[in-house]
Write a structure and sequence with these properties.
Elements lengths: L2 H8 L9 H15 L2 H9 L9 H27 L5 E3 L3 H12 L4 H20 L2 H7 L3 H22 L3 E4 L3 E4 L6 H18 L5 H18 L28 H5 L5 H29 L13 H17 L4 E3 L3 H6 L5 H16 L9 H15 L11 H16 L3 H18 L8 H18 L7
Antiparallel strand pairs: 1-4, 2-3
Helix pairs in contact: 2-15, 2-16, 3-4, 4-13, 4-15, 6-12, 6-13, 8-12, 8-16, 8-17, 8-18, 9-10, 9-16, 10-16, 12-18, 17-18, 18-19
């Protein structure tokens, strides 16, 4: 039997109405939109992790463990869960690790890694007994149906910001960038419209083609002497010499377990736990909705399998020496390209393993080129909001808050928590307390406490 036939049988491609070419293309698309993490994660964590080898060498070590942890976690997602979701160290969680836990709280980086490992083990145990899946199924229906559109807006802000089409403004918070004079913004706009145009024409792989063409245009512009006005975003990134010795990072969490402040350690573990729990839940539901994977109740069938892959990824990542590994919302890019099975995730995992050999291989794709894919997918995900019953105010309010709060607080967790809290409160005001499960009230109280913990100065903010 040919390899293609074995893969088709192993991932049951026929039953999912897909084929080998589509799955491979979808995996490449997801990797291209996730690949920035191989460069960005080390740039954030190096502020907190001192291996004694210097910043340049430490960044290379972190790039290696970032790619390895992403590859391992995504491989588990592929072969165990058979879902087209990519995993890697999460943005926001790495900033919390570096700037709040290690920086502001003064927790040694080895101890912070120990908290990541403990969190991962807790997730494995809770997934084994079905507790994580049970809690996610308690999420109110309007919140589940709103998450897809909310994630779309979240992706849009990330993509537009990273392409400099939208920039910060002291008066209005956000405003239009210099799209007529900034070379990065100009290339981004051209690439964005090219990708949309290819998509409208029904071109298979439109996102990959758009990213590739935009990258080539950027490299050509750089070769002609065009300079980027943004110091950290060159038109044509260069590849530094790789370092593969990661021994100062691997197993460092064991040193962190040796001398603990029990209270501080518990608070750190709980915070990592809540943020990762909510972001994973939101991502699985949101990208599951984009792929048509959800059932009539808005739940992802066999959710315990992708949840286990996420838990294993977090545990392995902490052991290797990086911050919390989580499921990536960028997986929606591959799903929009037709990815429906774990074969998509397998391609993503293999790409991350290849990136280890060429660390940081992903830096060859300019940031602005990869992030136009997020804007394209964001537009496509907005249609998911049509499933919300907007005529019922007890559904409209929690769904609306989820859609609004998620992008404007730059947090998947905050958006979901706002919707979960609002649902039972609105039902109570409407005299429909009987529609609310006792567990949903418990979640609302728990997430209200989570808001207090995160914004009340106990741990600072990410």
């Amino acid at each position: 039997m040919a390899l293609s036939d074995r893969l088709a049988a192993a991932f049951d491609l026929a039953a999912h109405d897909t084929d080998l070419r589509t799955e491979v293309l979808a995996g490449l698309t997801t990797f291209l939109t996730m690949s920035y993490i191989v460069v960005v994660n080390p740039a954030i964590l190096v502020a907190a992790i001192d291996t004694g080898a210097g910043d340049a060498a430490t960044m290379q070590m972190l790039a290696v463990v970032t790619a390895l942890s992403a590859g391992v976690a995504t491989l588990v997602m592929a072969v165990y869960a058979n879902r087209p979701f990519g995993l890697a160290p999460g943005m926001g969680l790495n900033a919390f690790f570096a700037f709040t836990v290690v920086g502001a709280m003064g927790v040694p980086w080895e101890t912070a890694l120990a908290a990541i490992v403990v969190e991962g083990v807790l997730f494995v145990l809770l997934t084994l007994v079905g507790a994580r899946e049970y809690v996610i199924r308690l999420f109110p229906e309007p919140v589940k149906f709103a998450v897809g559109a909310a994630l779309g807006l979240f992706l849009a802000i990330i993509g537009l910001e990273k392409t400099f089409i939208v920039v910060a403004d002291p008066s209005t918070l956000l405003t239009l960038g210099a799209v007529a004079s900034d070379p990065v913004a100009i290339l981004s706009v051209l690439g964005l419209f090219l990708t949309f145009g290819l998509y409208v024409r029904g071109v298979t792989g439109s996102i990959v083609v758009g990213v590739a063409v935009t990258s080539v245009l950027g490299w050509a512009a750089a070769a002609l002497g065009v300079a980027s006005p943004h110091e950290s975003v060159p038109l044509a990134p260069s590849l530094p010499a790789p370092t593969w010795d990661v021994s100062p990072l691997v197993g460092a969490f064991l040193r962190g377990l040796a001398d603990l402040d029990a209270l501080a350690f518990t608070l750190v573990v709980l915070t990592f736990f809540f943020v990762d729990f909510l972001e994973t839940a939101g991502t699985l539901v949101g990208v599951g909705q984009a792929g048509g994977f959800l059932d009539e109740n808005g739940d992802l069938p066999e959710m315990e399998k992708p949840l286990m892959a996420d838990a294993v990824g977090t545990t392995v990542g902490g052991m290797l020496g990086t911050s919390t590994v989580t499921t990536y919302v960028e997986s929606a890019t591959g799903i929009e390209e037709g990815g429906r099975t774990g074969l998509t995730a397998l391609v993503v995992a293999l790409c991350f393993f290849v990136a280890v050999a060429f660390v940081p291989f992903a830096a060859a794709i300019p940031q602005y080129a990869s992030h136009i894919a997020l804007v394209v997918v964001a537009v496509l995900m907005l249609g998911n909001v049509a499933e919300v019953d907007w005529h019922d105010p007890t559904h409209a309010v929690p769904a609306g808050l989820t859609v609004i709060v998620m992008p404007f607080t730059y947090s998947i967790a905050y958006g979901i928590a706002a919707g979960v809290i609002a649902y039972p409160v609105m039902k109570a005001f409407a005299g429909e307390r009987g529609d609310v499960h006792l567990g949903q009230w418990a979640l609302a109280v728990l997430f209200a406490g989570y808001f207090v913990l995160r914004t009340g100065g106990v741990l600072g903010s990410v």
